Each structure stands twice: as structure tokens, then as C-alpha cells.
Amino acid sequence: MDSQSTMAAPAKDAASFLDLAIALVLNNWPALTLAVQSNWGGPTSGDKRDWLCGAISDMLNERPETDAEDLEDVLIQVMNDEFEVMIDDESAGNVAAEIMEFKAQTTRGEFGAIQELWETWQKKSQQKSSAASMFKKVDARDEDQETDEEEDDSEDEDVEMGEAPSLVRAPREKVEPEIDEDGFTMVKKKR
Q1: Staple 40 to which of 59, 83, 131, 146, CB 3.0 to 4.6 Å?
Q2: Which domain holds residue 108?
Q3: 117 with 19: CB under 8 angstroms?
């Protein structure tokens, strides 16, 4: 399931904004995005990402004492267990810190940054879908041209092609070595 189509506009309550922030941050994480696009978690990689979004939301709601380090450990563990990806850069820590910052903002009733992230996500999604539709249009046009060319070719008569040139080199003449009167072979310089 494509998470771009499943994310809905944010509601007005803090929990919904936090859930949206978690989903946006995880969908923007390059390591997870690559793992999902490459199906490193199997054919249900997208579902695993969606499950991770829900699991993090539940963890933050059920255990309010969760900090960025706890969340980073969970992200690293899930990437390793579910996608067979070892995260050895700082990206898991950055993602965890970003999610915890959004949690703090929603606790204070500040939703502006999440709203901006949501709008950026929507614009990026629209650009991707318009680029994909342009590709489909160009691809369809190319197929039409190929069909026309094939029809044109079938109407033409066969053209007599001459014999193909030989790709095999003619053997070189072997130069017999000169032997002097003492029985020694003469050494000649190459030209």
C-alpha cells in the first residue's frame, strides 16, 4: 500500500498531528524509503513502514517517558529485523530527535511546523504524480510512433542487401627466418 495515498489531512487534535508528523518523518527518511522501494522487507515493505508509524505512535502514547535514544534504538532494531538494513550513520538518531521535537510541539499545542511539513509533502507528491503522468504520456507517444514505423516498414518492399564484408583477417605471410653460414638465425628489427 502506498503511504502517499493513505496519509490524510491532519485533524485538529494534538494526537492526530503527532501521528501525521511521525508518518511524514518516517516517509522522508531516506534509509527507510530506499528499503521500502527496494522491497528489502519483502512484498509488504510498505505495510511494515505503516506498522512502524503506528508502533511509534503507540509507544509514545503508552510510555510518555520515552526519549530520543529509546526511539533511536527502536528504529535501528526495526530496520535490522524487518528490512535487514544496518543503520550505521546518524540518520536514525536524527529521525528520532525530529519525532521527539514534533511530540514536544504538539504537547505545547504548536502545529505550524507539522502543517508546513504536510504542505511540502503534498507538493512533492503532486510533482511526482505529474512527472509520472508526463512519463506515461511520452511513453504512450513513443509506442504510437513505433507502431506507425512498423506499419511503414511492412509496406516497403524488401531491399536487397549485398553480402556482408568478411570480418576474418587474411592470414599474414609467415616470414622464414634467415640462417647465416654458421647456422645462427638472423634477428631483424621490426618495421
Answers
A1: 83
A2: 14-121
A3: no
